[in-house]
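Page 42, continued from yesterday. The earlier attempt failed because a stray header line got pasted into the input along with the sequence. Redoing it now with the clean sequence only.
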Amino acid sequence: MVVDDHPMWRDAVARDLTEAGYDVVAVAADGAQALRIIGAARPDVVVLDLQLPDMSGVEVTRGLRAAHPAVRVLVLSASGEQQDVLDAVKAGAVGYLLKSAARPEFLDAVRRTADGDAVFTPGLAALVLGEFRRMAAAPAGDGADALRLTERETEILRMVATG
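This time it went through. Structure tokens are written below.
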């Protein structure tokens, strides 16, 4: 499933996936539409823009994962900001790729996401791992407890580290 508010971008991503042999079971122009159709579409992977007109991609990721925990979300965004990446991972995204990625890199990221791998644009993986290490090293009682990763977040980061 492809979720992006820009029609040309959404259509191009869907076309690239179809040409590469993937079944694009649905496309959505905003978060609310994505959340409405996921039950009927039942995608394995959702390629999701982070900046949507009605809600953030982080909110959409949380909603998609709550409705269908097995779905794998690959964020495809123009933003490489640290907080955007960390928020997406905390919401349940298993990958984060910048829109500046080349078509082969994008298709490889989709394949790896479908296989269950954590996929990040080079440089972003180091950022996520660095944050994980910082949080793991924080002394107890310094407020870092609120930032502790869930078991799933830890699993994703381990996959990134060994990937």
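Notes: The CA atoms of residues 36 and 50 lie 18 Å apart.
Reminder to self: strip header lines before submitting.
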